[in-house]
Design brief:
Largest sheet: 16 strands, antiparallel
CATH superfamily of the largest domain: membrane protein fhac: a member of the omp85/tpsb transporter family
Helix content: 10-25%
CATH topology of the largest domain: Porin
Number of strands: 29
Structural class: alpha+beta
Number of domains: 4
Distance between the termini: 45 Å
Mean pLDDT: 88
Amino acid sequence: MTAARRPGTVLSLLPWLALAALAPAPARAADDAAAPRADTATARVPYLLRISAPDDLAELLGTYLDLARFRTDPVLAEATEAEVRRLIAATPAQARALLETRGHFNPTIRITREEGEPPLIRIEVDPGERTRVSRATIEVQGEIVEHADAGSARDQALLQEIQAGWRLREGRPFSQSWWSAEKTELLGRLRTDGYPAATWAGTAAEVDAPRNTVRLFAVADSGPLFRFGPVRIEGLSNQREEAVSHQLTFRPGDRYTEKQVLDLQERLQRSGLFESASVLVEPDPATAGAAPVTIAVREAPLQDLTLGIGYSDVARLRGTIEHLHRRPFGLNWVAKHKLELGRDQSSLKSELTSHPKADQYRNLLAFAGERFRSASSAPTDSYRLRAGRTQDTERIDRLYYGEYTTAIVTTDLGRQRASALTANYEWVWRNVDNVLLPTRGIAASAQVGAGHARSDAGNGPFSRVYGRLSGYLPLGGWYVSARVEGGEVFTPNNVDVPDTLLFRAGGDESVRGYAYRSIGPQQGGTTVGGKVLATASLELARPFGARSLRQWWWAAFVDAGDATNDWTAFHAKVGYGLGLRWRSPVGPLKVDAAYGEETNRWRLHLSVGIAY
């Protein structure tokens, strides 16, 4: 870091910046003329301190001035008058050095002392005019210039981006922290896009204190252009090398970018095969043409067994047993089995997923069986067998598969069985600030499928579409989230499709205030699936005021929607209420009390995570 300097004189700010980094929490000395706190009441306080200055500067001085930091130090409990005078004498120079880091080079500082027991020391600060940039000269030299002059569009754009991105321009207020931040950001642009060995050839901030101006000079040396070289993988014992190499998206000779390194690291961690992964490219100019890449992984255990007990709006009280094997029978697949036993819902799911292929796709085989019983919905037993391929990327998830589905619904009219063979495609897109805890952005999902159905009513083709759109927006201290979804199944009149491919509404991620899957057409006195669906939701949330409760939010919401057999019968059911949110590391924990207008009843909803 280069300290600001006056013409002909070097003003060293490093001791004060180091002090700022190492100092304890603020002493809150802006105004402590009141009685000492209870925890220090029994100790002698050598003096009281009051600082009069603009708020941000008062906090700065009250945090880092010796006179403020040492006031409650037990060592000074028996401070001599000479020691207090020494602190007072050192204060003007210390205050000037601190104020200069904020761009105030001509402050007026007045210190007075009022006798008493203990005495009161006043520091009055007039910071004066803020120093502003009179000229900023920003240059980049090195190999990047050679490539740009040779016609490299990428390097030309990078140079333009660096010049356009510099914000500390003529007329802007100056501070040491902004100056340091701009220099860090400029080097960061070079280091993340091909030039990780970039350094400063020279920087200077020349202050003209009488005129309250500063001239800035910064010359960066890009160093050589780096290209990926040979890859070495460390830490493998149970997994094969392909579990790592198939996730590489760059080849030897490709231009180095930090994004590709970070993306690879994220893919390895998201694969579920490793507890941790790090990717290192040594920024040694001597190997820039073929920079060695070291990938170090720590494998996850071959097997995991998870037992759980909980409660949900879907299954009520439930217990779960889940087993995961990351290389069953020595194959490059992951086997996952989950048994869930609940009062209203029980299920068995088995899934085989291959390790990632070179194109980032995984092959998929899955079986699922479910038994659903609820007082508000028709008893349903369903089974499905699925084979397909899936791909999960930073923003887009894709899944296409063939599926055989069977569902048996029992009503007062008897047992109705339907089966279908379908081809399907599912797509999820996210553009949010945080996948687990979004507060800004948009997410969308779509499902399309077509196939042939068989039932007692008749056989024939059908198709199915579904879409969901979610949005998140911060408004001051408030956070708005909204959701709309809709779907339809298209069939000839004499064709029934499995109930699990139809639509129902109600529950945590649908229309709160109504039981899970309780909204739909009535048949034989119970709720069954419908061919059309539409729901919407609007929620307004706000964190609690106390700093210690910032991860806790309260929310108000309204939901509406319906599932029917045709749009002419559509009648939106409305639910609304209040909720509590805990923004945990694995996603928001939601507790909602919702009132359903159709049922005239309140319901409690519990859920974890975000559904896209």
